[in-house]
């Protein structure tokens, strides 16, 4: 008899190794199993690559004092040569992290493709992955969770996310889309062009000159559209790629005090916009890759956002010069929008008529209908994500945690809403969302038009065993969160704004038997943790067992 089982057959059948699960085609007279594709042989056409030319000369540093910066947008022929290099070789696959176990390493994911692409293009990009990691180690807290080593994506551990209402620079999350350029502020410049009356170039001294531009200091919460993505991944896999779809948890949000100027004032210093300008295209100095194409990081924001003083040029963060990893020497801050629009290492702003056609604006950060996916998606099906909806998250306790309490479980977390709205009420439930308790106003941090509110509550909980704690927020416009992750799931795995749910094992010490049993664990030295470890002492004496049945009816009756 032919045995067809594989050693991992059970895991595949149970969906625990989904990347190996064959597709089932039921459109014909007989079902057909379509096996996952084997990765092609790793090949390299060295002759084609050599024919491109000397990479050190082709992809040289664009400006003195701008290490790691290559200008792509002005040179289509340079883009073509980089494209030829990338398409003349086969790179290894990305690691599978949605349909299998996420690695228990830190960094979690290495960014294999992006490192190899930088090395393949070469020239000024050759050392960018290694230089960027050195910057991470130099500027970030040693306890940061490195979700993606390159380009760097990292968030603080839960216990530190809301430790302070203002996030220290070293603990502020980072979502980079490329390497970290190292730019000398005395060499930095900003070009304003496109549909402006007068084309101008500004230096660092120009924009920090208070006689020309009044300074503004604002507390701003920035949130990645991928915040809490792990909840969507845990439910259903979505668009795959370790860079756009890094497995963010609840820490991809942070609040800092920024010093800068209104971008509107800089536009006015150029004589203002000329018709038909309605959008501003923002250019960042990092190198970005998409579909074997090479480019600078480019997005856009509408003029209507800029003219209401909601887009800033900033050079300080929490009273210090911007860290390199956060965009030194100057970055854009778009208040109330997803972090992807707040361009780091900004070097050019171009006034245009319509939203940017650059891939990050037009083909990424899109919110799709739930029936849209790999089989049918196209960019125009998605809504370009700008303002973040209302959201909240529980930072303590953690899901699957055992909590010993005296009838109340102490919980803490954050709440936020984009677009200039703010959290007005935060509510928690210990019974899956049937009964809600409002966080006392005294336990909410100060309101701010552009900031989160951190919170804490002693949540009443009488029941024991597995419970589901749920958190939701109502913002100043009375928007609230959908109650399930399924309601928020989308192919791009963006904007997980459903009510945050965690499973907790409740041990209520106010119950007499529980208190007595806990003393027994302590007296015998029997481990209470982990929860699944069997007790090392009898949970009931035989005398008590027999006495119970003497005083009660038997299990079965005649």
UniProtKB/TrEMBL annotation:
Pfam families associated with the record? Mo-co_dimer, Oxidored_molyb
| Domain Moybdenum cofactor oxidoreductase dimerisation as annotated: residue spans | 384-504
Q: Name one GO biological process term.
A: sulfur compound metabolic process
List the record's Gene Ontology CC terms alphabetically. Answer: mitochondrion
Report which superkingdom the organism of origin falls in: Eukaryota
A single MF term (Gene Ontology) = molybdenum ion binding
Per the database record, which ranges form the Oxidoreductase molybdopterin-binding domain?
177-356
Q: Which UniProt keywords apply?
A: Metal-binding, Molybdenum, Oxidoreductase
- Named cofactor requirement(s): Mo-molybdopterin
Q: Does the keyword Ubl conjugation apply?
A: no
**SUPFAM superfamilies annotated for this entry?**
E set domains, Oxidoreductase molybdopterin-binding domain
What InterPro entries does this protein's entry cite?
A: Ig_E-set, MoCF_OxRdtse_dimer, Mopterin_OxRdtase_euk, OxRdtase_Mopterin-bd_dom, OxRdtase_Mopterin-bd_sf
**What name is this protein filed under?**
Sulfite oxidase
């Amino acid at each position: 008899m032919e045995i067809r089982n594989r050693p991992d057959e059970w895991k595949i059948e149970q969906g625990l190794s989904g990347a190996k699960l064959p597709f089932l085609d039921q459109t014909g007279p007989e079902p057909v199993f379509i096996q996952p594709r084997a990765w092609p042989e790793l090949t390299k056409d060295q002759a084609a690559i050599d024919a491109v030319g000397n990479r050190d000369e082709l992809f040289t540093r664009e400006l003195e004092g701008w290490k790691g910066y290559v200008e792509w947008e002005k040179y289509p022929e340079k883009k073509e040569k980089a494209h030829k290099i990338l398409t003349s070789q086969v790179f290894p696959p990305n690691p599978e992290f949605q349909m299998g176990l996420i690695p228990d390493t830190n960094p979690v994911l290495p960014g294999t493709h992006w490192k190899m692409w930088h090395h393949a293009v070469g020239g000024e990009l050759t050392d960018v992955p290694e230089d960027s990691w050195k910057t991470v180690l130099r500027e970030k807290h040693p306890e940061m969770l490195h979700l993606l080593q390159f380009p760097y994506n990292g968030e603080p551990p839960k216990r530190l996310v809301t430790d302070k209402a203002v996030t220290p620079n070293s603990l502020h999350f980072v979502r980079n889309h490329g390497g970290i350029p190292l730019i000398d502020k005395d060499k930095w410049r900003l070009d304003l062009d496109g549909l402006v009356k007068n084309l101008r170039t500004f230096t660092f001294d120009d924009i920090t000159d208070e006689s020309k531009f009044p300074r503004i200091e604002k507390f701003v919460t920035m949130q990645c559209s991928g915040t809490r993505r792990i909840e969507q991944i845990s439910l259903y896999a979505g668009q795959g790629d370790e860079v756009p779809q890094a497995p963010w948890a609840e820490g991809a949000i942070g609040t800092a005090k920024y010093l800068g100027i209104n971008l509107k004032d800089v536009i006015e210093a150029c004589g203002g916009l000329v018709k038909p300008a309605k959008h501003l295209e923002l250019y960042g100095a990092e190198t970005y890759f998409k579909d074997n194409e090479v480019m600078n990081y480019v997005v856009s924001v509408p003029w209507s956002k800029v003219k209401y003083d909601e887009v800033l040029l900033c050079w300080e963060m929490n009273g210090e010069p911007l860290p390199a990893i956060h965009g030194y020497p100057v970055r854009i801050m778009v208040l109330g929008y997803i972090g992807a629009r707040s361009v780091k290492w900004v070097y050019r702003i171009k006034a245009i008529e319509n939203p940017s056609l650059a891939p990050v604006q037009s083909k990424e950060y899109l919110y799709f209908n739930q029936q849209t996916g790999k089989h049918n998606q196209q960019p125009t099906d998605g809504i370009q994500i700008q303002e973040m909806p209302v959201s909240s998250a529980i930072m303590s306790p953690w899901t699957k945690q055992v909590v010993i309490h005296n009838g109340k479980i102490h919980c803490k977390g954050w709440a936020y809403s984009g677009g200039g709205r703010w959290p007005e009420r935060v509510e928690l439930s210990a019974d899956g969302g049937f009964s809600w308790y409002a966080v006392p106003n005294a336990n909410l941090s100060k309101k701010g038009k552009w900031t989160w509110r951190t919170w804490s509550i002693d949540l009443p909980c009488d029941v024991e065993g597995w419970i589901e704690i749920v958190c939701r927020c109502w913002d100043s416009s009375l928007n609230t969160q959908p109650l399930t992750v399924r309601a928020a799931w989308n192919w791009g795995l963006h904007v997980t704004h459903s009510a945050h749910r965690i499973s907790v094992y409740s041990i209520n010490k106010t119950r007499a038997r529980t208190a007595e049993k806990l003393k027994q664990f302590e007296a015998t030295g029997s481990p209470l943790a982990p929860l699944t470890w069997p007790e090392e002492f009898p949970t009931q004496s035989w005398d008590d067992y027999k006495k119970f049945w003497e005083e009660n009816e038997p299990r079965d009756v005649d």
